[in-house]
Amino acid sequence: KWDIARLYEEMQEGLKEAGKDDLILISHLTSHCCVATALMVEWFGKVNFLIYRKDKYEEKNLIINSEVAHD
């Protein structure tokens, strides 16, 4: 978890089949969430989070680059 560059490379492979509508589950693995977020934004211009709040899961979306997000 301390080698972020290696984590980035491994997550590129692990998320290669991810789609623009997939969700990232926010957890206690902060470095993993950050790298997954960076990859999703790089690839799709947006990221979709699944956040546990008030005894239920909620989807939250963040669009960074609307030109990429709508392709």
Short overview:
The chain has 71 residues and is an alpha+beta fold. It is 42% helix and 27% strand.
Strand order of the largest sheet: 1-2-3
What structural category characterises the helix and strand content? alpha+beta
- The N- to C-terminal Cα distance equals 33 Å
Strand fraction band?
Answer: 25-35%
Number of strands: 3
Fraction of helical residues: 40-55%
Count of DSSP-assigned helices:
3
Average pLDDT score:
90
Low-confidence stretches: none
Provide the succession of SSEs: HEHEEH
Structure description:
The longest helix has 15 residues, at 30-44. This protein starts with a helix and ends with a helix. Helix 1 (4-14) packs across helix 2. It has helices spanning 4-14, 30-44, 66-69; strands spanning 23-25, 46-53, 56-63. The model has no long low-confidence stretch (mean pLDDT 90). It has a three-stranded mixed sheet with strand order 1-2-3. It is 42% helix and 27% strand. It contains three helices and three strands; from the N terminus they run H-E-H-E-E-H. Strand 1 (23-25), helix 2 (30-44) and strand 2 form a beta-alpha-beta unit. With 71 residues, it is of the alpha+beta class. It is globular, with a radius of gyration of 12 Å.
